[in-house]
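Reviewer 2 asked us to include a model.

Predict the structure of this chain.
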Amino acid sequence: MSAPRSVDFAPCLNPATLSGLPLEQFLALAAGAGFPTVEVSIQQAQAHGIGPSRDLLQELGLTVVAASGILPAGPVLPAPLLVDPDTYRTCLDGLDSRLEAMAALGCTVATTVLNPRSPLDTCEARAVAHKRIAELATDAAVHGVRLAVEAVSIHTGLPPELDGPHPVLDSLPQLAELLDETDADNAGVLVDSFHWAAAGADPGHITMLGPDRITHVQIADTPAHHTIDELTDAQACSRATGRWSGWPSPTPWPGPGTPGR
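Predicted model (structure tokens):
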């Protein structure tokens, strides 16, 4: 029997913790607080310039472990996977340049969010999710970037772009099952502790994944004295992320594997 693999975890700061800051200020605060790694909005990094961004990261001693915005929604925010077809086609504009920018920054993970509910019926929504995850994972692999998909488990206060009358999925086991059905080797699970808590905080939802399935981890404080049905994403008191290493990767990565948002 083979010996168990050790899994390392390094702290990383997510920009959602300091929403609204320009990239330079966010990176300076992350470095000043002692974080060795950060997540970034790839739109922000591109707007700042990839060369200047890379120089600033090097100056501050920071590494980018994950980037949002593989599907962009404006200058900072990401778009979810199940946007309408016209919006999705617009989101694909510049995809290669965003992935090239991630690779140039040494970023090996692109994060994306799957809608918990949709205007599409459940079967159709999941079919669309299969197709888009497979497409994005294939494109990302060309650049040495791995796709990390996040399930949203809150039931209250969903923004319109994540909501709809029909359920899609809202838990880690359901997401893992969908990724298995998609058979996209370059896509893994993004574990967000806040949404895990909103789904009931079942330890089995995480242990059933194993480190080989987890591509990125996000950790956020969950407020006390709230029931599961009362939790909204705005109540995530702070958000940091984690970098794991130790699992086999389907493509050569320039550094250890990473989870985060």
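Residues 122-142 form the longest helix (21 residues). The radius of gyration is 17 Å. We have added this to the supplementary material.
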